[in-house]
Amino acid sequence: MIPASLFAGLFIHFALISIMAIGGFMATLPGMYSYLVDTAALLTPEQFAKTVAFGQSLPGPNMLIAGVLGWAACGPLGALATLSGTAIPFSLIAVAAGRYVREHKTSYLVRAYKSGMAPVAIGLLFATAYLLLSGDLTNWKSVCWAVVVTLIVWRTKFPLILLIAAGGVLGALGVFA
């Protein structure tokens, strides 16, 4: 039986991460990785990367990955702890911040905040990409696929859903094994 303190820890940690979600939810993955893999040792680096990849294939918002990671780490109660920890504080803060920004959109403070946070958000997204790729850098097929997809996304308007589907088909066929 998993102790209740573990679920409380998951809730609190994911709540704190969601509060720091600057640059979108995917930018919080390094914090989740640090807790689930390095601190609590609930997942291996490979399990984390595969779980995130699976979560990305699900329809809906990126924050569903929190629930998928919680499920992979501790089952249904883990999913409940991580998803509610992610959703509740973030939702309350988002509503309050949205109201403030809408009412003060021409304020120097709001404009300065947006300008200053853009580089932070980009840096967090690069850290996420590094973490997701670092677990699989020895598999040259996966690295090649990542480079090809990156170039396609960067240089074309190719539908992302088709790239996701292609990756799923190639993975199911064992191309990356």
Write a concise synopsis of the structure shown.
This protein has 177 residues and is mainly α.
List keywords for this structure.
7 helices, mainly alpha, 0% strand, 2 domains, globular, 177 residues
Please, could you describe this protein's structure?
The protein is mostly helical. It folds into two domains: 4-135, no CATH class; 137-177, no CATH class. Helix content is 77%, strand content 0%. It contains seven helices and no strands. It has helices at residues 4-19, 29-39, 45-57, 64-103, 108-134, 140-155, 160-172. α1 packs parallel to α4 (64-103) and α3 (45-57) packs across α4. The relative contact order is 0.12. The mean pLDDT is 88.
Mean pLDDT: 88
Q: What string gives the helices and strands in order?
A: HHHHHHH
Q: Termini separation (Å)? A: 34 Å
Give the overall shape.
globular
What multimeric state do the chains show? single chain
What fraction of residues sit in β-strands? Answer: under 5%
Tell me about the largest β-sheet: none
Query: Rg from C-alpha positions?
Result: 18 Å
Structural class: mainly alpha
How many runs of DSSP E, i.e. beta strands?
Answer: 0
**Count, helices:** 7
- Please indicate the count of domains: 2
Portion of residues within helices: over 70%
Uncertain stretches of 5 or more adjacent residues: none
Keywords: Cell membrane, Membrane, Transmembrane, Transmembrane helix
Protein name: Chromate transporter
Main location: membrane
Organism: Parasutterella muris
